[in-house]
Amino acid sequence: MRMISIQMREDWEGAFSEDWPYWIRDANGNVVSHWPGANLLDFTHPHIQDRIVQQAIAVSKCGLFDGIFFDYWHERISVLGGFRTLEAEQRARDNILQRIRANTRPNFLIMGNVNAEIIPRTAPYVNGGFMETGIPGIGTSVDLERALNAAENSLFWLEHNLREPRINGLEGYSLPGEVFHSPNNRRWMRTLTTLSLTHSDGYVLYTPSVASDHTWHDFWDADLGQPVSEKRQLYQETEGLYIREFTNGWAVYNHSGETQVITLPEEVQGVASDLVGTEHAVANLDGEMYLRVTPANPGDVNGDGVVNIFDLTLVAQAIGTDGAGGDVNGDGVVNVFDLVFVANQF
Length: 346
Known about the structure:
Distance between the termini: 37 Å
Number of helices: 6
Strand content: 15-25%
CATH architecture of the largest domain: Alpha-Beta Barrel
Mean pLDDT: 90
Radius of gyration: 23 Å
Number of domains: 3
CATH class of the largest domain: Alpha Beta
């Protein structure tokens, strides 16, 4: 997936002269900077809206990118610092999105930086939310609880309400004052990774700085396969303890307030712990991926240990859907190729 950012809220001050009429200005007529070198753009002005739409159309036509990314995509607060009304900003976003959708290819992707918020007004036009959660680089435990709850709720909402295909991403920041690969930072990386796995079909990043530099973790090399169970499922009705099954194992995310012991139906190996068994302890504010010691046969749809007509029937019933249980070949849709896959394993 290749995305390119289009400037909507701000642009570099050198991009246009200081007397350019479309900068946001204060009461004294001075250009307003968001940070040194970046000035606020008046995207409520029709000229800037035309410019943004034309850029998006050009991206769509060039064929080099799958879609575009807008930073500062909020519906609850003004992103122009109150220099324009929230309703004026909303109308501008509506106009920009509607025009882009009307003039780009059907599979053109639009993603916005929503942080840990929901975007009900523009959801029909937007494919994905990028969530700069700030976790865990924040202060008090109250802040942490609020941030985690917001991330869980918003990510789950985005997964069910945005335009398909959905491409949500979750980002956390490393702990200040600690080396990036410290035990605490690795724990937080696992926490956010398993939060994403249990609450979405999206992506996760863990950055060593607010500059959005990103480092790959070996934890992410684990091949869980395709999701089998639904998102946001509690383990044995334990509040804050989430589990999701995949074709090759399980992901567990613990936000329950205490260490929890889980029992899985077969022997698995923890990706981080390296422990093998059916019972595993997961610390609070941590997460783990568990891989089957004996990989599951994707053709065994009902999990009874044998591939037969019952599995074929389940796949046939799911034809035409994207149901993970029937998508045995992992191509994102249940069709005749899945039937052939199962039949060949009788």
